[in-house]
Amino acid sequence: MAELSINTARLWQTITASAAIGPGRAGGLRRLTLSDADREMRDIFVAWCRDAGCTVTVDAVGNLFARRAGQDNSLPPVMVGSHLDTQIAGGKFDGVLGVLAGLEIVRTLNDRNMATRRPLEVVSWTNEEGVRFQPPMMGAAVFAGALQRDWVLAQKDDDGLMFGEELRRIGYAGDAPPGGRAVDAYFELHIEQGPQLEAEGLQVGIVTGGFTTYGMHLTVHGENAHSGPTSMERRRNALVGAAMLIVGANEIGWRHHPEGRASSSRVVVWPNKYGILPDFAELTCDIRHPQPARAAEMLAELKKLIPQTEQRARVTVKVAREWTFGDVQFDAGCIGLVEAAARELQVPHKRMLSAAGHDAYHIAAIAPTAMIFTPCKDGVTHNEAEHIEPDYTAPGVNVLLRAVLARANR
Amino acid sequence: MAELSINTARLWQTITASAAIGPGRAGGLRRLTLSDADREMRDIFVAWCRDAGCTVTVDAVGNLFARRAGQDNSLPPVMVGSHLDTQIAGGKFDGVLGVLAGLEIVRTLNDRNMATRRPLEVVSWTNEEGVRFQPPMMGAAVFAGALQRDWVLAQKDDDGLMFGEELRRIGYAGDAPPGGRAVDAYFELHIEQGPQLEAEGLQVGIVTGGFTTYGMHLTVHGENAHSGPTSMERRRNALVGAAMLIVGANEIGWRHHPEGRASSSRVVVWPNKYGILPDFAELTCDIRHPQPARAAEMLAELKKLIPQTEQRARVTVKVAREWTFGDVQFDAGCIGLVEAAARELQVPHKRMLSAAGHDAYHIAAIAPTAMIFTPCKDGVTHNEAEHIEPDYTAPGVNVLLRAVLARANR
């Protein structure tokens, strides 16, 4: 089977076609979930899958499943996939590579008329990025039962547009119930989004689990007042409260450096005008650490900032929503298949954790799961300059192909 | 002349009518400059002025002048006024009281068939608040030659709507050139916007000048990156840079407490989404102190934050625009007239500075100017709960009437 390998040029053609749909301002992609560009990408992807002989189904939250029949279609499928939506200033590969690698695996098997015992399904999960509708990894979360379908359909973006209506608008509100069916295994290939593989000259990262991540929306309530006559001790400036939380969270990240990190990436302020102290701010904080106990410490430190900020800025701070992900250990059997494939193909590899969020974390709750990382230039991601090369990537996709095949023929 | 006094009930009728135009969410006003509500208020005010026998002219930036002829109309007018626009969550009296007090003075003189030697003009300046278009005090600034008309007409609000187009849309792009004509004197009555008069049981503050104020827009440039895999030392989070500046400015305010104050009331972040570190932020900082030398110290401290922030957050900070106001000493002659009127009417009063911005600062550069403060409840302003009572206010308006009359008959 040593000669079995994907057609890298063909994979790159699909990546290049995808890279033209929803272009960003600086050479990357801005393909927000349920946007017109998302529809266009879905349409092309579905056409490609049908051309490859797959049956495409769409579930009620827009997850796409392209099924290649197996020899025994009573068996649960082996799934391969990731997501086709991007960040608002995102790259051409984050998510996209994992879905199109799945399609390339189907095409490679078709080329050789190779059947598998179990059916294969190439999956594209809806709204992995969480940039337009929150939380991230929505489609996979519903499929795995971690979020309720109706709740997701009712979420709104910053312009007040509703997830369910936008999904109907782009024609991807499907009939299939999301989840509730057996999955034999799930494999996801993704760019590393960090610099380790490249720095160490490795072509494959075998992801064993994630950084434990805690996120929260915080609201800050203060009081409108005039920027001039209102003396400092009478102020209840919600923006000052938000800024104290943002600076404090950043300091927590540094205290747990180099493994820990803490981020604020979003603040909404009202009225956010000149001359009037704002009475409301809403912000997002996110902390991550590879060790769950250290992540819990960081979370406790973040929560300690709340009463401190309330006192210093004379505001009221509330935790409006909390979430967590990443404290997951992927399946030893699936990891073993990936590792065996990497050894067999003599691809330099190591085990590692992911610091990002992935659809695979949710699917791991309902099916044996593994992830493969491939290198990306300088670890740059969620940035339009994100870049990979075919040489960096093809070995990982071939490892994926072997692992999927082994599992599907089990 | 002891029997000459305004009709407080009639003044209150106009204030009550104004309070219904552009209502806020919580009992105050939200009458943003050049909005439909601004048009409605202007229409009613113009009708009232014409009913009072005035000739109304509108200049090219929308300033309104309601002229009551004098005995010698070759003499420059005495002006009385303030502004009819409000903050986005503003009160019913800030600015409004000063304009409608001017109208009430005209009506009182009409009641008694009292002529004045010089003509009187009741003025409403466009966009004092600076909430929708910046900087504040735009109309008065153009009239006094501190801003160029064409530059002002080209300014845009947060929705990209242009000042000049909005002015035309509401029908108040007038023919009169803004400024460039002699003004004998300018008097402005305004609520104090602070707690001093009420606390000391005084009914009139004679404003001798302003707190020296420095404002600036700062831009922060960082780099998009992923909130997870990007380690702390690789980050260039523009929001963290902005938050450091906001917290730092707040600390400067406290170091110069109780007289000094420093504010950030606005931050705009891009992309301001979950999961992606923002590459851009823009914020407004504003510092004030009654002593010009101390204000200059505060400004120097604020500017020292810039390189510190650039280093700590690995961002680039630029001063996109700077402005200053308030370092003004009003005219001794006009102040003397106000003080003489207060003494004559036995109204408890004191001299004081204003910590807010006022149209009068600009007009003081081209004409002898004075301001009268009247008390407001608890000093609350730029807040929908702003409140005054007729009893608190009428003595100040009567002082204004005497001072204006004395000047106009000089």
End-to-end separation of chain A: 16 Å
Largest interface: A-B, 75 and 75 residues
The tally of beta strands of chain A, per DSSP, is: 14
* Contiguous runs where pLDDT drops below 50 for at least 5 residues of chain A: none
The Cα radius of gyration of chain A reads: 22 Å
Instruction: Name the helix and strand elements of chain A from N-terminus to C-terminus, one letter apiece.
Output: HHEEEHEHHHEHEEEHEEEHEHEHEH
Task: State the helicity of chain A in percent bands.
Answer: 25-40%
Widest β-sheet, arrangement of strands of chain A: 1-2-4-3-5-14-6-13
Number of domains as seen in the coordinates of chain A: 2
- Share of residues in strands of chain A: 15-25%
Query: Mind telling me the CATH class of the largest domain in chain A?
Result: Alpha Beta
Mean pLDDT of chain A: 97
Shape of chain A: globular
Query: With helices defined by DSSP (H or I, 4 residues minimum), what is the helix count of chain A?
Result: 12
- Report the major sheet of chain A: 8 strands, mixed
Question: What is the CATH topology assignment of the largest domain in chain A?
Answer: Aminopeptidase
Assembly type of the shown chains? homodimer
- For CATH, the homologous superfamily of the largest domain in chain A is named as Zn peptidases
Q: Can you name the CATH architecture of the largest domain in chain A?
A: 3-Layer(aba) Sandwich
Q: Label the structural class of chain A.
A: alpha/beta
Task: Describe how the helices and strands are arranged.
2 copies of one chain form a homodimer.
Chain A (H helix, E strand, L loop, with lengths): L7 H11 L17 H16 L3 E4 L5 E5 L9 E5 L13 H16 L8 E5 L13 H6 L5 H5 L9 H7 L15 E7 L4 H5 L3 E7 L1 E10 L3 E2 L11 H18 L5 E10 L5 E2 L2 E10 L2 H22 L2 E10 L6 H13 L4 E6 L4 H5 L5 E6 L15 H19 L2
Parallel strand pairs in A: 3-4, 3-5, 5-14, 6-13
Antiparallel strand pairs in A: 1-2, 2-4, 6-14, 7-11, 7-12, 8-10, 9-11
Helix pairs in contact in A: 1-3, 8-9, 10-12
